[in-house]
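Bumping with the actual sequence this time:
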Amino acid sequence: MAAWRDGYWESGDGLRLHYRDYAGREDRPPILCLPGLTRNARDFATTANRLAGEWRLICIELRGRGESAYAKDPMSYVPPVYLQDIEALIGALGLSRFVLFGTSLGGLLAMFLALAGRDRIAGTLLNDVGPVLDPVGAARIRGYVGRGQSWPTWLHAARTLAEGNASIYPDFQLQDWIDMAKRLCRLTPAGRIVLDYDTKIGEALRLLDPTEPQPDMWPAFESLGGAPVTLLRGELSDLLNEETAGAMRARVSDLDLVTVPRVGHVPTLDERASVAAIDRLLARIR
């Protein structure tokens, strides 16, 4: 297992935010890992363990997740504020060029970062997300985010995750679910296991009207062009459908579109197809 150091930076509104910093070669751009809506730095641990040494990985925890401070105002759990936080980190670390790995929400943030300055981005991995979100998956996510749960043991937590996500990871065995529980949850001082994020992140999400037209994200996606881009799509995904993925490939001609078999939203990045795709992307950047 690769070693990392804990890093911290301060947001514009005074929150102490956390990232894991895995050391790597200084002659290559670092990889900024941007997690999904309810995820944290541990989501990239296996990828970081594999790549560290050759590549520096900076695994960010958005406000309200993991070891990052919870926001006083739950309405700050929105993409424009996340982007301000990430830009503050980029500035604090003095990063002039970097690779982006973005899972779900993290992929949307990657698009916005490119829109704000495409020349600094050496390449991008989008994990099961695109400029258009399938309403089926969006509704499913809105339905579970922010629901507080706790369990007495990791096994209980794993079984609950298995019950709710069996269709997403149909090949998972018990140990896979336990591993997922340990990525998504934390042990409290009282000895209970809880989800490792501020449940108030669901409040801003529920204010969105699903009947309203989605904002046009295509310009943000197209701004990734000009540098290598890889798109992972879970074969069973309910958030990124085949039509949108095909349109993305048509608009960025050299996009490497990879379908990850027998996985929904989102691929874990540990799958054989995901590992091979990441290696191809980094070879293009290197």
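The tokens above came from a reply further down the thread. The CA atoms of residues 45 and 59 lie 9 Å apart.
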